[in-house]
Amino acid sequence: MKLVLESGQEFCGLCQGAQAPAVGEIVFNTSMVGYQEILSDPAYAGQIVVMTYPLIGQYGITAEDFESRATGIAGLVVGECCDTPSNFRYTKTLSEELEERGVPCLSGLDTRMITRIIRGKGAVRAAIVDESMPLADALKLISLTPVSTNAVPQVSCAKRWFSRTPHHTYDVVIIDCGMKHSIVSALNRRGCNVTVVPFDTPVQDILAFNPDGILISNGPGDPERLPGIIALVNELRGKLPIYGICLGQQIIALAYGAKSYRMASGHHGGHPVRNMETGRIITTEHNHNFAIDPISLEGTGLTVTYRDVADDCIEGICCPADKVNAVQFYPEGCPGPEDTDFFDKFIKDMED
Questions:
Q1: Nearest-10 Cα torsion for 7, 12, 14, 15
Q2: Partner of 61 at 20 to 30 A CA spacing, among 71, 109, 237, 320?
Q3: What span, in angstroms and rounded, lies between the C-alpha atoms of 192 and 247?
């Protein structure tokens, strides 16, 4: 099979997953580990992911480590795919998992060159197709495939569900925009019963659960396409703690009157961010194509808590008076570091 970029460049490789075509935006991810979490992260919906780390699949797939039951990515591109994992916990190889999920994976490509193309051109659409398909047909396939800017309705849960923990202290409602299950686990470990609800759940239904706090999850797409959740934040802010992760941060910022913008190539993988209060720099895991316009934050009442070290992108905001807090990265550390006190602050705000 081959990878075709909308600019007309072609890269032939060995198919390691499903023998199926895929079309979507192509992004690069700089993570050294965590390919299973990337595969099952709903926020990657419709994207073809290029892994910059040269060897992927070396520890296999472990059944209990999935972030969701659904498949997030449309396709995967790697330098080398390992089919002989070394991990006592693994239950399948990466190739086997991708084949079962219907996700194509190309190996043997120059991922460094592809990454440089994406960095230079910004948002690039691509297709993984059979090697025999003429270039003109592949480009036509890319151009005729609709561009999705709001995949949240497809990746959000269909009905509410619960995750309970013994002797719980607090009740949290998570608005599922494409949530990673490790967020639920992080709250369960801190004594929270969690109710996960669909993205379009009305305010009165959320309040019927009598929550101590609300968390807006990560997810794919443009936050401006979710006016219902923005209105929900406006209605409930100041009444109980509201926290947000990734897409959740952007939604909260829009609710306070700020604006978001489309990034050139987004943040996918490990990025260093600076705590604006302490000056401490930590490495965090990212996955987002949109960010908050810093100029638009003026006069909103929101304070910047984290910034990206590389490009000064806003990585965290808060409004202490309303007990509102959000981060652009994944604070639950699956995979990745657990260097933030995001969830502990959530607990403290609910306690207060």
A1: 40
A2: 109
A3: 22
pLDDT tens for the chain, 352 residues long, are 999 999 999 999 999 999 999 999 999 999 998 999 999 999 999 999 999 999 999 999 999 999 998 878 999 999 999 999 999 999 999 999 999 999 999 999 999 999 999 999 888 999 999 999 999 999 999 999 988 778 999 999 999 999 999 999 999 999 999 999 999 999 999 999 999 999 999 999 999 999 999 999 999 999 999 999 999 999 999 999 999 999 999 999 999 999 999 998 889 988 899 999 999 999 888 999 999 999 999 999 999 999 999 999 999 999 999 999 999 999 987 766 677 889 999 999 999 9
Contact indicator for 67, 182 with CB cutoff of 8 Å: yes
Query: Rounded to 5 degrees, what are φ and ψ at 280?
Result: -70, 140
Alpha-carbon separation of residue 272 from 138, 269, 279, 331, 347 (angstroms): 37, 10, 12, 13, 25
Contact 13/94 with Cβ under 8 angstroms? Answer: no
pTM of the predicted model over 0.85: yes
The angle that helices 181-189 and 342-351 make with each other, rounded to 10 degrees, is 50
User: For strand 303-308 and strand 260-275, is the pairing parallel, antiparallel, or unpaired?
Assistant: antiparallel
Tokens describing residue 135: 């270039």
Q: Which pair of structure tokens corresponds to residue 261?
A: 């913008």
Please list, residue by residue across 230-250, b when 16 or more beta carbons sit within 10 angstroms of its beta carbon and e when fewer do: bebbeebbeebbbbbbbbbbb
Check if the beta carbon of residue 48 is closer than 8 Å to that of residue 24: yes
What secondary structure does DSSP assign to 91-156, as a single string? -B-HHHHHHHHT--EEESS-HHHHHHHHHHH-SEEEEEE-TTS-HHHHHHHHHHSPPPS--HHHHS
